[in-house]
Amino acid sequence: MKTIEQLMNVDKAKIIFDLFRDEIPEFLEYTQAIAEKVANDKEELLVNWNNPFLSYHQWLQLAERVASAIKKYDKNLTKSGNLFTNQLFDGYLAIFTNHCLEQYGLHRAKSPRFRQAIELFYLPVKLATPTSGQYLVLEMHGGPEYAAICTDTDGNTLVFDDRADAEAEASECQDGLIVEI
Predict the structure, then answer these.
(1) What does pTM read for this prediction?
(2) Are 100 and 31 in contact (CB under 8 A)?
């Protein structure tokens, strides 16, 4: 079995297909609707287009090709995982269908587990940074470019375990800012 890092677009889509067959018909309808929106809302999308990697016209071509595959293979895409993955998630088409799958999973999926699968396979990992409950106080001296960390009389950085103590120190500064570390 491949590790999650080794899975390609078609592998991920095949797992999604196998685990959540009940979601596939609605996902295909959703994808078709998104493709139609891309084609029909050209002026609005062109004005607001800010993707530095793909032009609107490239996005439109991908949307049209995906819509064409859905129309051509119709219900067969819900019956065959290989057809589903090869027609919608192979090559550059995966750019559009992965986007649709992410959006469907996050906003339309019936199953909470489907959403979890999408988060696992497609969304970036967000590292949890536990807070220590400690605070620094910055003296801003007229702006962030002049900020200095408050120190004691020996030049040691003041670190407060209690926010109230940090707030008291900040109140004594010209322009104090509390930062949780």
Answers:
(1) 0.68
(2) yes
